[in-house]
Write a structure and sequence with these properties.
With about 210 residues, the chain is an alpha+beta fold. Helices cover about 50% and strands about 5% of the residues.
């Protein structure tokens, strides 16, 4: 049996960042282990059959995945609460999280197409379609945020963590394609405010 919880991550993964932020906000004692699923020697496939990070390992050895499930599990371990108790409020926050995760999904599709597929096999139409998803998602987030500091209620929630994780990943991968801070200044203001928190500042994705 392990002495403490472990979190298996990639330092570029926006999904892993979401779990890292949630765990830090809850002041959980955990060991972070870096494992890159793209590498041939990855060990994450022994923990998650899909070969994806993050994976949360309990002291008893139970592997919990994916990021949405991990965050729900962390809710059972410590405060502050990042999901509303009210069922309808919870659905709203989870839908916002799903939108942010969808933006991450589209971003990962572009990364895989550009970096993992031979140049002669890359399909620009597919890349363009994913960028359209990203821009529609960001525009919707601007509308949903309005002039509020948080996406739901008056406190930080999983919705805010997921959106920040998506924005950070876009900045990491697509700085040459577009500056999201210039195109979506409302989201830039939101992100900058969250970056004043150590849990967000210390988990910025790095190559």
């Amino acid at each position: 049996m392990r002495e403490k919880h472990q979190l298996i991550v990639s330092l570029t993964s926006p999904y892993a960042r979401k779990a890292r932020i949630a765990a830090q906000l809850k002041n959980l004692d955990f060991e972070m282990i870096v494992d890159v699923p793209w590498n041939d020697d990855t060990g994450v496939i022994t923990l998650n059959p899909l070969g994806k990070v993050p994976v949360w390992l309990t002291p008893a050895g139970e592997a919990i995945y994916d990021s949405r499930v991990i965050v729900e599990f962390l809710e059972t371990l410590a405060e502050p609460e990042l999901l509303p108790d009210n069922p309808l409020g919870r659905i709203k926050v989870k839908q916002l999280e799903a939108l942010a995760d969808g933006i991450m999904d589209a971003s990962l599709c572009i990364f895989a197409e550009r970096k993992k597929r031979p140049n002669e096999l890359q399909y620009q139409g597919w890349i363009d379609r994913q960028f359209e998803k990203i821009h529609r998602g960001l525009a919707k987030l601007v509308t949903l945020l309005g002039d509020k500091p948080y996406f739901f209620g008056d406190t930080l929630s999983v919705a805010d963590i997921a959106v920040a994780s998506a924005l950070g990943y876009i900045g990491l991968r697509f700085s040459e394609d577009f500056c999201w801070q210039d195109q979506y200044p409302e989201l830039a203001h939101f992100y900058d405010a969250l970056m004043e928190r150590p849990s967000f500042k210390e988990t910025v994705p790095v190559l």
